[in-house]
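README, section 4: Worked example with a bound small molecule

Sections 1 through 3 covered apo chains. Here we extend the same pipeline to holo records, where the ligand is supplied as SMILES alongside the sequence. The molecule in this example is 2-acetamido-2-deoxy-beta-D-glucopyranose. Nothing else about the input changes; the structure line simply encodes the ligand pose together with the chain.
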Amino acid sequence: MKRNSPFSSCLCLLWLLTAVMLQAVESAKGKYAHMLFNELFEDYSNALRPVEDTDKVLNVTLQITLSQIKDMDERNQILTAYLWIRQSWYDAYLTWDKDKYDGLDSIRIPSNLVWRPDIVLYNKADDDSSEPVNTNVVLRYDGKITWDAPAITKSSCVVDVSYFPFDSQQCNLTFGSWTYNGNQVDIINSLDSGDLSDFIEDVEWEIHGMPAVKNVITYGCCSEPYPDVTFTLILKRKSSFYIFNLLLPCVLISFLAPLGFYLPADSGEKVSLGVTVLLALTVFQLMVAEIMPPSENVPLIGKYYIATMTMITASTALTIIIMNIHHCGSEARPVPQWARVVILDYMSKIFFVYDVGENCTSPQRKKEQEHKLERDDNGQRRHKEESHLCSRNDDTDLKKLNGNSNKSCEIHGENARVPVNCCSCYKILLKNIEYIANCVRDHKANKAKGIEWKKVAKVMDRFFMWIFFIMVFFMSVLIIGKAA
Ligand SMILES: *[C@@H]1O[C@H](CO)[C@@H](O)[C@H](O)[C@H]1NC(C)=O
Ligand SMILES: *[C@@H]1O[C@H](CO)[C@@H](O)[C@H](O)[C@H]1NC(C)=O
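The generated complex, written as structure tokens:
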């Protein structure tokens, strides 16, 4: 430590000396700047265009840096963006010889002291007329003034939502002088596109470029050209938010609708399922309608909703008709021949409908069971008829018949012991039995008719279920295909 101390103190002294000298230079610079400022602005007016020859044009170079997209209001067609606007021009009256001012080559002064070009955003959609911000300008010894100003611009932008949520938008930002024509102030874009290097990534929009074009418009009346620079902001919507929140739920719900045809008719839920699905879709449609402009161009997703809702309305209406067919019952007329051939013979095979209520048992076993029952039934009836045809000596059989027969027969039954009248009694009995058999047969036929109508309803249900499934599927593929 002690050995080093002379050296370190020396270093310290040197450092101090440098600091003092620097301060002196700076204070000298400050003095010069003060002097320069007083001299420059002695008889300077910021109201007049700073050119030596008034016939000469003043060139203003414009450069836009896009920092952020704050908002895109589709409904009101307004793009709010955060921009840095850099304008530079040469002021003929604000020049100096930098050697005379100790090499001072630039000063920074408030921008309201110097003349500023009145370049404005033509397609502004802001209601308040904001003044230009009084940021500093950099003034160079040769008269070049560079003015950087941040700005939050609200510009009108024609938003075409036909392909929402898979849309791209182009928003123009047109800058031009408000009062000077092209012979007085000419506006030039320094680069052929806006600067996007400082852009803060947006959650909703991807930027696909910001080309700049200079347009010169000459109006019919006057010979003066009016130049402007138009920056076209090319935006592509990031659609995953809308896919997950608006599209997928709708696709899933719409797949539920055809299943309404599969619901058993007796559950009584067939129609309410359709109506519920319809209501759910209406909610989604309202959500979309709220963010979209009320324009003629219906967005793609809106078209999808409308198509799906139409389909579900149709399916609900069809369900009601099929329910009617299902409940045709035994009083109805029989199933027409063509329907029997087309629906019961062919379509039932195509759609694998075997019988009413086959859902819960395997169709094969059910069929066998029914066949067996029918065979038993037939066999018994034939057997009974044979045994009853005048088995006159069978006393027990006779007694049984007496017990079961109706009243008219009972009166005769008193004389049943008398063998002479026996045959006539049997004839009456036979007649009654025939009547009962007919009744049963009719009843069975009616029941079969009801079952047949039920089967027709079921086949139609199945048919429409597949038709609507295919429709929902194709519509979903179409809308999701647009995303790619
Ligand atoms: C302005 O720019 C044009 C070219 O665009 C050039 O010909 C003209 O000399 C410039 N004027 C001045 C004063 O720099
Ligand atoms: C935007 O500006 C470009 C270039 O000037 C022009 O071609 C286009 O028509 C403009 N678009 C709208 C919507 O004004």
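What to look for in the output: The longest helix spans residues 422-483. The chain has two domains: 58-238, 239-361+417-484.

Section 5 describes how to batch many such records.
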